[in-house]
Amino acid sequence: MNSDYSHLEMMVIAASRLLSDHQKVLVGTGIPLVAGALAKKTHARKMKMLMEAVAYDCDPESLPFCVADPRAVYQTKWLPTPVEVMGQYLQGGDIDFGFLGGAQVDKFGNLNSTCIGTYQKPRKRFEGSGGASDIALMAKNTIIIMSHEKRRFVDAVDFITSPGWYCRSLDGRSRMMRSEMGMAGGPYAVVSTLGVMKFDEVSKLMYVDSYFEDLGVELATIEQETGFAIDVSRARPLPPPTHLELETLRTKVDPEGIYMKY
Amino acid sequence: MNSDYSHLEMMVIAASRLLSDHQKVLVGTGIPLVAGALAKKTHARKMKMLMEAVAYDCDPESLPFCVADPRAVYQTKWLPTPVEVMGQYLQGGDIDFGFLGGAQVDKFGNLNSTCIGTYQKPRKRFEGSGGASDIALMAKNTIIIMSHEKRRFVDAVDFITSPGWYCRSLDGRSRMMRSEMGMAGGPYAVVSTLGVMKFDEVSKLMYVDSYFEDLGVELATIEQETGFAIDVSRARPLPPPTHLELETLRTKVDPEGIYMKY
Amino acid sequence: MDNTKIIELKQVREHVHSGDRLWIGGWTLVRKPMAMLYELIKARLTDLHIVNNPGGPDTDLLIGSGCVSKSETNYIGHEVFGHPYNFRRMLEEADPAMPFLHDDWTVGTGTMRILAGALGIPFIPTKFLRGSDLLSPEHDGFKEIRGIDPKVPKIKFATMKDPFWEGEEFVLVPALRPDVCLLHVQEVAEDGTARISGGAFLDYYAAKASRRVIISAEKIVAQGSPHKAFDENVIPGELVDHIVEVPFGGHPTAVHGHYDNDPFWFQEYIAASKSKDKMREWLEQWMHASESFEHYLHKVGRRRLDRLVADGALGYSPNIVRRLDKIKEVI
Amino acid sequence: MDNTKIIELKQVREHVHSGDRLWIGGWTLVRKPMAMLYELIKARLTDLHIVNNPGGPDTDLLIGSGCVSKSETNYIGHEVFGHPYNFRRMLEEADPAMPFLHDDWTVGTGTMRILAGALGIPFIPTKFLRGSDLLSPEHDGFKEIRGIDPKVPKIKFATMKDPFWEGEEFVLVPALRPDVCLLHVQEVAEDGTARISGGAFLDYYAAKASRRVIISAEKIVAQGSPHKAFDENVIPGELVDHIVEVPFGGHPTAVHGHYDNDPFWFQEYIAASKSKDKMREWLEQWMHASESFEHYLHKVGRRRLDRLVADGALGYSPNIVRRLDKIKEVI
Fold it and tell me: Which of A256, B39, C105, D108 might form a disulfide with B19, Cβ 3.0–4.6 angstroms?
């Protein structure tokens, strides 16, 4: 086993550290699933991992490829449908953490997984919300996980697929603070390939909470790779991966390198 | 086996004759269940018998005591909950016949299973609608089955639990013809201990369609036992039970006489 | 496996409070959590607000015990066994000393209301109720407390035109939001995962819609093989706060695969419930004078219980006599 | 048992028509009724209106084949395998010769909409959608055909204040009402009763909400022991119009307990879908030049199929390589 590790691995490990026992975590397809599985196999054994299509309390032996993968139901005790997971648990307000990726995130934690350019004539069209919009709206907390690039960390997303702190009003005509609209939840953290961002209690603007100093990341790197002015004054270095975290990720969670791309 | 038969038996047999193969029939607790089971075990083997709590295609070996009885699920192929039976099949408009009893029926086929006297201060209070109101409203046809007594066959029921042809308007303030309210379905027949009543195509008033002549019932008997003027001009005698009908009822459907009270 | 959810039967009293909106699982004569309800009666709870749809001996008995001040349900009765005299008496002979409000619904709307509760939405459209006097504002049984009691919806129903498709007029009904849900099932795992056979009725939906869930079971089991079992695992453990093992805990109602209805119980209970005085005697004898549920079962007697035991293949007992008027001929 | 529901695979063409609102069962990469969809492509159907939520290679392929003029769904993609280039191209480079409208939703609202369809109610309240640009009237993808096309709801959503409880503002969304529903399952009985393992997703709800239901299955079975089987019998036969046996009928998607995703298919398909010309070649080779599904499977090759076969205990294949960039190293 190599003692070096990648930004991608540190991102997944940093995200997994945000989860703990006794939480109900709804994970989307992709990297969120890797971070969820890592938490479950290291420090959060009793965490319940849900997936929108099928899984209620999932602890897969082999990494599921999507939220409906047969790997997701192996050994589960109860097999729900999206009517239960999304309609009842998520809509009912029972999910502690929602775990999402996306193509763009903005300074208020709004996420875009719909399109670049205008909706009517997109320069680039993506797959669409899937469950992301629902999870960002109804989970008690949202964790966003995304590669840190200037084109992804933007001042305002081209399309608010998944609402953050300052989002679309009900009539669709203006933007409002999330709390003014009676919406609970909201983005708790953005975990990137450079560090962990959180949101200011008052302004709800993104700031850098910690950064991957051990990987040579500097605060200037983060400022450079972020498409808006970001407060780095509160940032502290994040401890590097432990042996257990790296080994579990590499040998148990994603040994095939499906997401970690070894 | 006795070749004599009772009014109760003839009522159940007459009701069972109204059912046929390939129908979906939702039966309420009590006598409707007996008539449904009899049809299924004689001339309507492919009829699907549903019960509101649990049963989708039920062909019990032993007569269920209520619509949730373990006898109702014996050998069924699919085990729904009331969300499917009532919420989806009945509300979705998929039920061909609903089969109901009640304490009072009126000339428009409205049924009362709530109270005698006023709702606020009832002289006599009954168990309540159960699923009767829903079935009378949403089944494509309703069959009512009830002992023929003057106090039960009334000009207007004290309380419309289950809507017939002339029922309560949406604002609760007046009465309207069912069709004017955009409601489908409606009472198809009332089967009593004296005969079978149907409803006039135009006036929607109850009339006598057939009577149990073989049991000594005369049209005057029906007029006497009915609390409103009833048209008997179209009535014809109903053929008595066949050997198969009586034998099946007595030896297979209700051998304990739970409802037939031998 | 941690087993911190396991409680003693008597502790049920600690988790249900006077004033609670109570959902009772099962269906009329089937899988009612009777042993747990007996505890509430012995604890002399008052002011319960019954929201289960429908009710059987469970509901009539709670009403007859003076535990209930409000009920909103579609049916209270004993099916063919006989009539719910305690419930009837409350409405026919209103007693100023025991205020009781009843609001009538239907199985279809009770189902939609608890489904809305499970979905976490405050109301749901339904095709049911149209044409019935149940919709008439003057027949709203909770009229006088709407807008006052926060545990009761502000209005009974609303109507609106469908703006999406054919423009039909629709009824909207409020979600049911029980404070506490009591269920009796065949098996519960130590983590609370409940297994039900012979029909789950609305138990899962009620568990999801309720704030607290207590499950009694014929048997508490270790988790067993999860892969094999998930089709029978109707309620996930996460929803369940407390569990208690009570063999025969559904007596006198039927529990699929375990035992059938006890006609003797119904014969005696229904006869007693016809008068206030006899009902008081019955309560004294069967509830308050029974120190424990074991003691109650002992009074019922092994011979009667044996007769109720279900045939494994059938799921019910082929041996019981189901006509109260003929019971004496047989035992 | 009558077996009048059994059809040949080619007959699927007789039961799906241009202009139909089509629900495709399964979920992105899992249990998609691919063999039946191939028939629709070979029959060169047009103007399909896709309503499944979400879509995977099924939906991208139908779009790339020119079969689709409208879609209202929450996602179209191949998950980690790659991007849905046919879908993308339709929106990024609108082609006047092939009009295509897309209306975006979410998994939560797609779920509520098909649930409303199954319940027979025209709309349902939901907590979802608030705060998202998906709610903005200018982003209504079907704006220009609402009120004109009777198969499309007159409005995308409505809002209302909850009149029953806390008075929150709510979104109402219209029911989904598919004309035809295509599902692929593990087993179907001759009467249409469908058995699904590894998650039913929204298949039951879609079957209930749809006018016509056609099910392909790995195996058509006699009814078997009903008492034992009812927990696995997800869809009652009554809902099902036609059934067809097609082993590997879900290829290249995964079918729990039978076979896994075929990464080779995705590698080739996704590469081809990046350009219109290559896509045309792919369609010619894999769809139109395949006389039958057997012929198609023969072209896929036994060696590849064997590798996909699921391990009985796991439900998936531990042997496939799931990184398209590393496929060549292995086979």
Answer: B39
Please give the tally of structural domains in chain D.
1
Q: Which residues of B touch D (CB under 8 A)?
A: 24, 48, 56-57, 73-80, 84, 87-88, 91-93
Q: How far apart are CA A131 and CA D19, in angstroms?
A: 28
C chain contacts of residue A57, beta-carbon cutoff 8 Å: 236, 238
Rounded mean pLDDT of D192-205? 90
Which chains are within 8 Å of B by 3+ CB pairs? C, D
d(CA D71, CA A108): 31
Global pTM value: 0.95
Mean pLDDT of C310-320: 90
- CB-based contacts of C173, cutoff 8 Å, min separation 6: C109, C112, C113, C116, C123, C124, C126, C129, C157
The residues of A whose Cβ lies within 8 A of any Cβ of C are 24, 48, 56-57, 73-80, 84, 87-88, 91-93
Q: Could you tell me if residue B262 is inside a domain?
A: no
Q: Is residue C179 part of a domain?
A: yes
* CB proximity list for D93: less than 8 A, separation 6 or greater: none
Please report whether residue D265 resides in a domain.
no
Compute φ and ψ for B251, nearest 5 degrees.
Answer: -105, -25
**pLDDT tens track for D112-170:** 999 999 999 999 999 999 999 999 888 999 999 999 999 999 999 999 999 999 999 99
Question: C161 by DSSP, 3-state: which?
Answer: strand
Whether D326 maps to a domain, the answer reads no
Q: What is the pLDDT of residues B215-262, one digit of tens each?
A: 999 999 999 999 999 999 999 999 999 999 999 999 999 999 999 887
**Cβ-defined contact of A67 to D27 (cutoff 8 Å):** yes
Is residue D188 in some structural domain? yes
Whether residue A166 lies inside any domain: the answer is yes
> The domain that contains B130 carries what CATH number?
3.40.1080.10
d(CA D207, CA D201): 12
Q: How close D56 gets to chain A, by Cα (Å)?
A: 10
Contacts of D34 (CB under 8 A, 6+ apart): D57, D58, D184, D249, D250, D251, D252, D253
CA distance B58 to B68: 12
Identify the CA nearest to D77 among candidates D248, D262, D273.
D273
Q: Has residue C122 got a pLDDT over 80?
A: yes
- CA pair distance D50, D62, nearest whole angstrom: 9
Residue A258 lies in a domain: no
Torsion over CA: A77, A79, A85, A88 (sign)? negative
How many distinct structural domains can be found in chain A? 1
Binding partners of C (≥3 Cβ pairs within 8 A)? A, B, D
Question: Residues B133, B174: contact at Cβ < 8 Å?
Answer: no
Residue C153 belongs to domain spanning = 1-258
Of C29, C107, C205, the CB nearest to B52: C107
CATH number at residue C2: 3.40.1080.10
Contact D74 A125 (CB under 8 A): no
Q: Hey, are the CB atoms on D165 and C158 less than 8 Å from each other?
A: no
Cβ within 8 Å, pair B133-C112: no
CB contact under 8 A, D254 and A69: yes
User: Containing H/E element for C23?
Assistant: strand C21-24
- Residues of the domain holding A135: 7-253
